[in-house]
Each structure stands twice: as C-alpha cells, then as structure tokens.
Amino acid sequence: QVHFVESGGGLVQPGGSLTLTCAASGFTFGAYAMTWYRQTPEKERELVGYITNNGLNTGFGIPAKGRFTISRDNGKNTVYLTMNNLEPDDTAVYYCYRDVPQDSWGRGTQVIVSS
What we know:
Strand order of the largest sheet: 2-10-9-4-5-6
Mean pLDDT: 95
Order of helices and strands: EEEEEEEEEE
Helix content: under 10%
Radius of gyration: 13 Å
C-alpha cells in the first residue's frame, strides 16, 4: 500500500526558512516524479512544485518560484521541500504526492509563518 508521511513543519517567522521531508513507501520510488502541494481552509489544494523521477528537473508554481527548491534521495525514498524567505501567505498544510489518482494522501505537515 502506498504511503506518504510528511514532516518538518512548524512555526517560522516571516523571512525564515524551513525544510519539509516526505517519506514514501509502497511503490518503486525512483520510477515516479513527486509533487508538493499545499492547502488552506480558504483555498483549494495548490501546486507548490514537482521533481522528476531522476531528480534532474524541477518545476514550481508561481508562489514558490525563486524561493523554494525540491530535491530527492531515491536511496531513501524521500523527497524534500526547502522553503526560503517565507511569507505569511505560505501558511498551509503541505503534502507530497505521486500524482496517481488511486493513491491516498498523507496527513500533511502544517507550516505557519507568523511573527
């Protein structure tokens, strides 16, 4: 069974940095691109960015461009989201996903950006 476990969230001041971790299991991790999403109660789930299966290419939604990076370690079945220069609008629950519709979502990790 496919599982995603996100961690690393917390409270951070505006302008600060945070790295989120996603541990995946139940599938051949290195064969799939991985995507980070985020969601708040007021908004629909939003694309943060993705990384290709081999880690050579990434892409980002507009809010994340220039501030966030994504990396992965296929040997550890783990993908990372590093967020810099955080803003209050980055406050959300962050999820990683394989973009296979049959997969269940993880519980996410809460990020709060506030002074």
